[in-house]
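Lab notebook page, bench 4
Experiment: in silico fold of construct C2
Operator: M.H.
Input chain length: 450 residues
Purpose: comparison with the prior construct
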Amino acid sequence: MINAIVNYALNNRLMTLVFAIAVIVAGVFSFQKLPVDAFPDATPTMVQVFTTSPGLSPVDIETLISYPVEISMYGIPKLEKVQSTSIFGLSRVTIYFEDGTDIYFARRLVNERLSEAKRQIPEGMGQPELGPIASGLGRILMYSLEAEDKDQYSLQEIRTIQDWIVKPQLRTVPGVTGVLSIGGEVKQYQVNIDAQKLQARNLTVSDVRGALTQNNRNVGASFITRGGEEYIVRGYGWVNSGTEGIEDIQNIIVSKSEGESPIYVRDVAEVSLGPAIRRGAEVSSGEESVGGYVMKLIGTNTSQVLEDVNAKIDDLNKSLPEGLKIEAYYSQAELVGKAIGTVEKALLEGSVLVLVFLYLFLGNIRSTLIVVATLPLSVLFAFIAMRISGLSANLMSLGGLAIGIGMMVDGAVVMIENIFRHLEERSEEKVSVLRLVGESAREVARPIVF
């Protein structure tokens, strides 16, 4: 096989040259289309199911939520194992599948089984939801919202901007599967019930909760026809935002009996705007801040996604309220750049060293250039193979390629030196140069390959 390749290359030199040009073109194209990541993603195919139930202890979370979800997952095709973690107020069930299982197929199977799990979870204990389509290496960028004047915006205001402006905009970037908000204070309406007032009016907390739920929604009432025109009828019941919302909530009727004055929320509780209970914080330069994590979709090009995310951040910085700016403090782009730079440096240094030392020892510039030419051709051919096999360009694959450059040079040097030796030793023989080159190449081709 090896000898046949050598013979074909010598007898069809024009086709060999065309093949080399094709490798260059296809290699450059493959490298441009090659997914670029910081690290190889060795995360197994898995689907996570999250259930939030504030107030429940880990024991209750495991018994009432995690266990029903786990049981419902057994019997799924290509299932490998199921693991769960139950902490205060949160259940996380991870379903692992066999290697090679399509992630979207796995998520569809899990989603079908969740309907069974939901029936087994007691009402009011939370609704199981699928986690994002991300891997353990999906966190590609971390950022914080920085205010030039620390007194200009409160942590609550910055968190509101993060949740309602920055986060939705970043999720529109192709390849982004989710954005996690961290730090700050989540704004919420707080209804602080006075137990004595509630008891004096013979009411319960459930009565107040039911009244709030029923009076914070819109309803449709079809339409009426008058004068040949249709008028849409709708009931508007959403609570307004800001201080108007506080008044709306205060004026909600909790109970109304015939012949008696209605009992409003303001009669049994105090309504205010305040922060939700926090169990963590983000700190930047010794001060609390607000930020987020950008998660990329499995299988997407990290380099391209980061480029699009940074472009979106630049656009957002122009439209954010005055004095606010998004600052990225971690990005996989730096690691990706270093990985590519490692190969570029190895190629450049290898080519220069080979060019200098081979010319010094062989004294033949043509032979030296042939050896140097094998470096980019070999690397470009490797890019074609990586593209076909679906491998990404990352720190490990490119680093291995950089190490392999030495072996490429070694094989080329052995081949050239053997040909050069035969040409010198048999210069007086009446044998064609093409035949000498063929014999010399076949002599060392098999040992070089194997």
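Observations: Residues 395-425 form the longest helix (31 residues). Residues 3 and 442 are 6 Å apart (CA to CA).
Next step: discuss at group meeting.
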